[in-house]
Amino acid sequence: MATIEEKFDSRETVEGDNPSITLKYVIKGTDNDLEAKTLLWTSSPGIYDGLIRQSWSVEYHGPSMWLGTVRYGLLQQQPETGQSVFQFDTGGGTQHITQSLATVGAYAPVGQTPPDFGGAIGVTRDNVEGVDITVPVFNFSETHYLADAMVTVAYQDTLFRLTGTVNNAMFRAFYAGEVLFLGASGSKRAEDDWEITFRFAGSPNRSAISIGDITGIVKNGWEYLWVRYEDAEDAVAQALVKRPVAVYIEQVYEYTDFSLLGI
């Protein structure tokens, strides 16, 4: 008859965020691996020190002898249909600007006055080159577990057509114009549901923007702002400079109804 006893070096323990315990056994009296595994299963506890039995295995160590190993860890529960998982980061995005918020310093040789470009950045004789800066962008994703009946071909087509559009009404905690839908990816998890991850980027709406002498500018998060410059004379510095004479706000993304996402 097969017997089992725990080894002296059993109960190896790991503490922390992902705790685990390993129990080790010696099984004697059988050359049948199925019998050895069954004995290991029935003889080891299902729960040990608050951890769940996750796996068990046997290894042949000679005639009628096996080494059994049972590992315990935290119970890993799979999200159920209808549940959601959220992630975010505030890494920001890059934007090319030609106008500063303020010119905080300007220098010239002794006896000369530096030309005043009205906040224009990187002014050359014929152009305003500008600079790339980091701007606030709130990147976030939502993973939803949707019923199979919802994820039809028509629904997948809707996700495709909403990609690269901006919300036309409040969405989550964001005002209209602040959220760009970057697309979705999904796979069928089982017969009954789909795991679909929706990706978004948020950029704040702004008002009361001032550029040079132009004030009261209003811009939604994903609209594009650009500045027209013209030559002007700086009488103090006795130089020809570039000055902002007009500001344009362009809509570059279509506004759509995000309720069609169904989340």
Task: Outline the fold blueprint.
Elements: E1 3-6, E2 12-14, E3 20-28, H1 33-43, E4 47-48, E5 51-60, E6 65-73, E7 84-89, E8 93-97, E9 131-135, E10 138-147, H2 153-162, E11 165-167, E12 179-188, E13 193-202, E14 206-211, E15 214-219, E16 224-234, E17 239-250, E18 254-256
Parallel strand pairs: 11-18
Antiparallel strand pairs: 1-3, 2-3, 3-6, 4-5, 5-6, 7-10, 8-9, 10-13, 12-13, 14-15, 16-17
Summarize the structure in words.
The protein is mainly β. It has two domains: 3-73; 81-263, no CATH class. The protein is 8% helix and 47% strand. The protein contains two helices and 18 strands. Strands 1, 2, 3, 4, 5 and 6 form a six-stranded antiparallel β-sheet that branches. Strands 7-10-13-12 form a four-stranded antiparallel β-sheet, with helices on one face. Strands 8-9 form a two-stranded antiparallel ribbon. It is elongated, with a radius of gyration of 33 Å. The model has no long low-confidence stretch (mean pLDDT 90).
